[in-house]
Amino acid sequence: MKKIMLLTLLAKRRAGAEKVRVTMRGLAEELGTSPQSVLRLLDELEGEGLIKKEIVGRKTWVALSEDGLRFLEGLCDSISEAIYNGLILGEVVSGIGEGAYYVRQYAPLIREYLGFDPYPGTLNLKVLFPKVVFDALCGVRPVILPGFVKEGRTFGDVRAYRVIIGGVEGAIVVPSRTIHPPKIAEIVAPVNLREKLGLRDGSRVRVRVVK
Ligand code: CDP
Question: Which of 15, 85, 142, 148 is deepest in the core (most CB within 10 A)?
Fold first, then answer.
């Protein structure tokens, strides 16, 4: 852990771009450890080929090796994959009462493309994690509910992402034209989720995106 933190710290100090001068004391303070430990960790990182170290007189210079950079990049990718793995954490909020109308219009398409009769309305979630809801949806292929015209009104395409919320299968629906900022996820489901899961405004829920 400390080793990874030290490597990250060196990268922050731009040791990925060039040789930078470091002091054991400075690194130790930032890592919350002793200068002796930093020296040992630097030796280990060097032994693993992740950094190059040069001591000139009393000065120490450090640079990340190519392997060191790749190691950090790989770690970053694995962490992103792990935490954005189709998880959304949200807080139940009320909308402006328009959900029911729209869900009724799209109900035949939801039945046809998603396979359930939707409860008329959308459960609105303020997305708390990830920072941007699309991070949890990236790499997931949406089901497209094709737009249509009804009684002279145009209803646009809607992207639907299958999800499971409290054991109930539903979908996050993203209209092609939406007044919501992407901080709100709208969920359609076959049942009233507030009733079924005992949710109120402010309740926190976890949603699993089906891949
Ligand atoms: O007023 P708002 O836009 O939030 O609601 P709506 O879309 O008209 O939906 C009516 C009510 O049912 C709201 O309280 C929604 O949160 C809730 N709802 C639900 O619990 N489960 C669903 N599958 C859909 C809506």
Answer: 15
Residues 78 and 94 in one domain: no
Same domain, 63 and 101: no
Q: Which of 116, 194, 195, 203 to mutate to test the pocket of ligand 1 (most atoms within 8 A of CB)?
A: 194
Ligand 1 atom closest to Cα of 186? 7
Residue at which a domain ends, from 60, 82, 104:
82
Strand partners, 163: 170, 209
Q: 113 and 196 share a domain?
A: yes
Q: Are both 49 and 103 inside the same structural domain?
A: no
In this prediction, residues 53-62 reach a mean pLDDT of 94
Q: How far apart are the first and last CA of the chain?
A: 31
Residue 164: per-residue pLDDT: 98
Residue pLDDT, tens place only, 127-183: 999 988 888 888 889 999 999 999 999 999 999 999 999 999 999 999 887 666 678
Provide the 3-class DSSP secondary structure of residue 129: strand
3-state secondary structure of 56: strand
**Domain span at 11:** 2-82
Mutate to test the pocket of ligand 1, among 122, 124, 125 (most ligand atoms within 8 A of CB): 122
More reliable by pLDDT, 83 or 30: 30
Domain stops at, among 66, 82, 98: 82
Q: How confident is the model at residue 22 (pLDDT cuts 50, 70, 90)?
A: very high
